[in-house]
């Protein structure tokens, strides 16, 4: 279903076309998977959090969300380095969606109740690459952490 996403995502063309619908969500989910794997521990709690994020973002049921996450895991494993991968995504997703992506990344980073420097460093890198200011990312982190502490997420 998403077999050609990498070739579309990394096509060497001037003025890259925006990703839409499922392609955009799988590319974003691949970034979430990359964050979860950043500390070399990809926990079930992180997988479940990614599924919930995908379900919430697009009104999917959990089976559809898990299917998109599985596709994202394959995409993430094949994707190039984080800098190139993120830049390609930035060029193809709407500006207003980028802050939501960063908030989702913070959710994944805290899903296993373990604060990982590797995950936080990756999120800060990706925030900058997506054009989200550090201050905004820090505010999102605080909001996500507070909501998770209250079990609202």
What does this structure look like?
Helix 2 (21-37) packs antiparallel against helix 5. The mean pLDDT is 86. This protein has 153 residues and is mainly alpha-helical. It has eight helices and no strands. It is 71% helix and 0% strand. The protein has one domain: TerB-like. 41% of the residues are buried.
Question: Could you give the topology of this structure?
Answer:
Elements: H1 5-9, H2 21-37, H3 44-58, H4 62-78, H5 82-90, H6 95-110, H7 117-130, H8 134-149
Helix pairs in contact: 2-3, 2-4, 2-5, 2-6, 3-4, 3-6, 5-7, 6-7, 6-8
Pfam family, one: TerB
Domain Co-chaperone DjlA N-terminal: 26-142
InterPro entries: DjlA_N, TerB-like
Could you give the distance between the termini?
29 Å
The chain-level mean pLDDT equals 86
* Structural domain count: 1
Level-1 CATH class name: Mainly Alpha
Pfam family, one: TerB
Domain Co-chaperone DjlA N-terminal: 26-142
InterPro entries: DjlA_N, TerB-like
Question: What does this entry show, briefly?
Answer:
71% of the residues lie in helices and 0% in strands.
What are its keywords?
single chain, 153 residues, mainly alpha, TerB-like, 8 helices, 71% helix, globular, DjlA_N
